[in-house]
Design goal:
The chain has eight helices and two strands. The protein is an all-alpha fold.
């Protein structure tokens, strides 16, 4: 049967009958959201870092440069604090992955996912209550730790391993 310009032949081997229950659908959706975290953050942080209210509160020099350089797009957002705001989540995610693999080996996936959720909740609280750049960056670092713990790729992984295991074979897209 043609699908998007490619022919798809039925799989060879055994066919498994599986029920698609609400819990299966919910677990597939939850497992798939793990891969959306980085993309969502890129969109949100990119949009927020260009908002005038955000710049006025946390980066007034960037806001002045943005208004002073009306004709040129060069160096409007040239600020080390803004760069730290943007990159802190990704650096924390990378660094925390190494610790998360140890946690997964020692304590299991469930505890690792709970730790990731705790990092997310605490990071959101810090970012929501931020009134200065330091609190904002601490919140981003905590969010990065949550991303690192949730998306770490090791022999026993959290979200990447849950994706194929949570979907029945007849709806799994590989």
């Amino acid at each position: 049967m043609p699908a998007g310009g490619f022919t798809v032949s039925p799989p060879t081997g055994m066919e498994f009958e599986a029920k698609i229950t609400p819990i299966v659908v919910a677990s597939c959706v939850m497992a798939a959201t793990g891969g959306l975290m980085f993309g969502y953050d890129i969109g949100v942080s990119g949009g927020v870092s260009s908002m005038e209210d955000f710049l006025r509160e946390f980066f007034p020099t960037v806001l002045r440069n943005k208004h002073d350089n009306e004709g040129s797009n060069y160096c409007k957002f040239n600020d080390q604090g803004l760069q730290l705001f943007t990159s802190s989540l990704y650096l924390a995610g990378l660094t925390s992955t190494f610790f998360a693999s140890y946690t997964t080996r020692q304590l299991g996936r469930r505890v690792t996912m709970l730790v990731a959720g705790a990092f997310f909740i605490i990071g959101v609280i810090f970012n929501g209550a931020a009134h200065n750049l330091g609190t904002l960056i601490i919140g981003r670092i905590l969010l990065g730790c949550g991303v690192g713990f949730a998306n770490q790729k090791r022999t026993r992984t959290s979200i990447p391993e849950l994706r194929p295991r949570s979907a029945p074979p007849d709806i799994a897209l590989v």
